[in-house]
Amino acid sequence: MRFTKRVVSDFSLSNAALSIWAKTNFWNAAPPEDVNKQWLPLAVHMADSGEVAELIWDNYLSQRQRQLLADPLLQIKGIEEPRQKALSLLKLIVGAHDIGKCSPMFLTQNTELYERVLKHSLTRCKRADEWRGVSPHSWIGEIAFEKWLEARWNHGDPEKKYVSVTAKQLGSIIGAHHGRPVSLRQHTVMAGPSLPLAVSGDSTWRQIRRELLNWWMDWTDSQEIIRQCKGLVFPTTWQSLVAGITVMADWIASNQDLFPLVDWDDLYPKRLLSPDQHRERTKAAWENLHLPPSWKPEILSQDPDQLLRTLFALGADAHARPAQVAAVKAAEKMTLPGMMIIEEVMGAGKTEAALMAATILAKRAGTSGVLVALPTKATTDAMFTRVVEWAQTSAKTGFSLKLQHGNAALNSAYKKIQYGRIASAGNAVSPGESSSMGIDEESSHSRQPAVVHRWFNKKAALLASVVVCTVDHLLFSALQTKHVSLRHLGISDKVVIIDEVHSYDVYTSQFLKRTVQWLGAFGVPVIALSATLTRRAREELYAAYKKGQELERPAQENKGSTPFDTSVFAAMRKPQSKRGGVLAPARESESESIPQKTIYPALSYSDAQGAKVRPLSVLATKKIEVEHWEDDTGLLADLEKRLQNGGCALVVRNTVANAQRTYETLRGVFGDDVRLVHSRFTQQDRQDNDEWLVRTFGKPGKSRRPKRAIVVGTQVVEQSLDIDFDVLYSDLAPIDLLFQRMGRVHRHERDARPPAVADPRCILMGIPRKDNPEPRVDRGSTFVYDEDVLLRTAAYVLDKDIEEDAWQIPTDIGTAVAAVYEETVATPDCWGVTLRRTKKRKEDKARSKTEGAAMGLLVPPANSDTASLIGWLGGNNPDGDPDELGIVGVRDGDSGVEVLLVEQQGEGIAAIPSDHHPEFREIDLQELPSGALRERLVRSLVSIPSARLRVKGRGLEEVIDEFIHELEKETRDLGVNWEKDFMLRGQLVVPLQGGEYRTGFGKTISYRRDVGLQIL
Predict the structure, then answer these.
(1) Bridge partners of 434?
(2) How far apart are CA 74 and CA 71, in angstroms?
(3) Which of 348, 354, 382, 353 lies closest to 370, judged by CA?
(4) Which of 166, 205, 539, 960 has the fewest CB atoms within 10 Å distance of its CB?
(5) Contact yes or no for 560/66 (Cβ under 8 A)
(6) Measured between alpha carbons, how far is 979 from 986 in angstroms, rounded to an integer?
(7) Least confident span in 125-139, 421-435, 798-812, 876-890
């Protein structure tokens, strides 16, 4: 553990400066009887947090992040040791973050400690509670630091009043350390002459603040870099990184188990500020924190086939697919920083391709982490184990891990990973001679330990090395939300993989593009995956990344990163031979830039000359016969005929209500052969449904396929489930989603299918007639999808019908998606009026959604003398935490009302049954639920869509408020008091009676295990 040699000078703090307190275990109320009063001087906390910042620099930040922090200093002509100077500046800022606590506004919060301070000739100021909300110590400290810097830069030139933009940039970091930077207006107020003395005090207070800052400057040996920084411009990427490190260091240094307070009677604990004693204090704290090492990948093979087998524990007969070979090759040669987009059919190994590429990109870029973002909790859970096994296999040492979404604690694989620490650097691989790429040619690699460390929790979750999360948590990086800089610190040193990038609407896409822009500015390698991405969406993602890259930096990109030895991958550049009749991909020279014609499947990546595209070989083409109906009236009869001799059918409806009606109808004829899956089941039942689907319709040899079965479902069957059906019936949906659904038909090779379903077939329901001058689509579907896109998809279906050709996957995907979304598809002449109306409505809606997103969108990264963290989040309230709103802030859908279902039994309640627990279980309300019961209750959560609660003649918000208050009262009346339970506190309980609950405004909430939630 390295510690910078401190400059020991004659500068010592006065007793007045040492009396300023920063921490205490009591405020105006005394601590418990068995706890002694304790406190901690501000000066000690400055040293604690500043030295923690150095430990973060040495033990947490990567070489690449350190270079990012040193880059702005390269503007200084002839600067020596820029990284050491960057560390000194970092420590200065981090240690000074609480300088605003040297103010009457903060110190008057504890009367006893305030009186001790006043004994040292500081002017007494009254308590000003009316200013407390708009004058927190973080903002007081920001102004104090600004003025201290300007005073130093004005020294020796009394005629010139130097007002520094640099001081504002550096000061804004201090102002942001509690998560919310000061607004532009409030900054003006706090820097002005009319600020009451009760806020920051008079000259006696300013003198003590200067003394503390001068002392801290000597401690950090930062005199020279302060002088050199005059007039320097720091980009907001740099400011945000330093702000994130400041928060991290402050939180660690504020942990009283790591950094103990001192006894109340220990008035001037100068011993804690002696170099030797403080070194021991900091060293012991860091060792007790036990932060795991960062994920450091190694390239385990030169051959893509062998790399695939090693990373994913596959047999000797496994071969890298075209997307995987192309991803490895692109990762080897693309200019860094850069972005890669893989567009490939469902089930073609995109995930493995992305993880193989991430291993190489992380090694090249010098990053020490990876983040995988997915659209839903279900897809995130499904991906988690695959990512963990890959990360453990590719890592040199152990690393920290985080699964981040609302129900992560319920993930069985995640629960098995022990909370704790890695005692050593990890399980080292066997000795061998390493190449320049870190390949251990002679070792047999073993998996490294992954640790879920308790410190990487909540807002600090993205600071873990390997993160698997719902996309919301990544997109919070572009949301005006508290502690956004902590998230920037987390994402700034990872390879970021974004799955299903086609699945986000106009609103969410604004946050996606702004996030990608920030990732480009940080120089983070990005890999985006999609089966059906539009050209416009692809171009917008590349444009956003490029815009971030264009943030001017004084240094070359990747300076300080380990050079990449391309010779290691010579084998990957050999011409591909035909394998099993597979067509070889086009040569790179034939596709140097993204062409206007559609290429699919394809891999594209950014390069110095722009984006390049590489066509991917097609291993197999699946032909699907598609027929279409105007409605669903023939569904029952067709199923009876087609499944007469067996077969497995999938019926996909666009709304839960339609799916439930269809299920009831089919169950009346087919009985137990029919099962319903959708999103309005409890969490336990949804998990059971997913497991049943894979267990029943998964890969041959791993599933128990029935002779006949019908699954009625909604969009939940479109993604991340490896399931295979003989025939598909689907509502009309956007063209890209139709292909997603078709990917569930004849997905796997099987020995035999019943004759009537031996060939892949899809029946589309709800296709308007081409001669109908007023074409209509299902009204419920228009609440889910855009009507214009649905009609143009219908036009494509009708046009394809004229050709009398089977649909081909993947051959048709690119051209079909382009035809619909670029509006080049041939449409019936008589549809013209309707399409003009729906197009205008689509454009108006997109404009409205874009404007709505802009209200919460974080400003883009900037590098100018006017760019600072001041005004970043708007508003003046430092205590309001928008994270709870942020959960829906990057999504525009109906978040609904989440409730916990129980069964009322007399005056008591019981947990409802599930496949795992088929019986009711009575709940003892006199005690907090045990671990197993607590989890069972949490798994009984379900979300009630707000729209289903509408009452004629009343406003929806009014009804929802009434519903919430009603459930709060029901919860109290039942005697439920779970406020001390971290998983159950605040949950709204719905006590069912016989599976139903009648609301006070006339709605009936019904729940059946086969049907799910219904609002009647």
Answers:
(1) 440
(2) 6
(3) 354
(4) 539
(5) yes
(6) 7
(7) 421-435
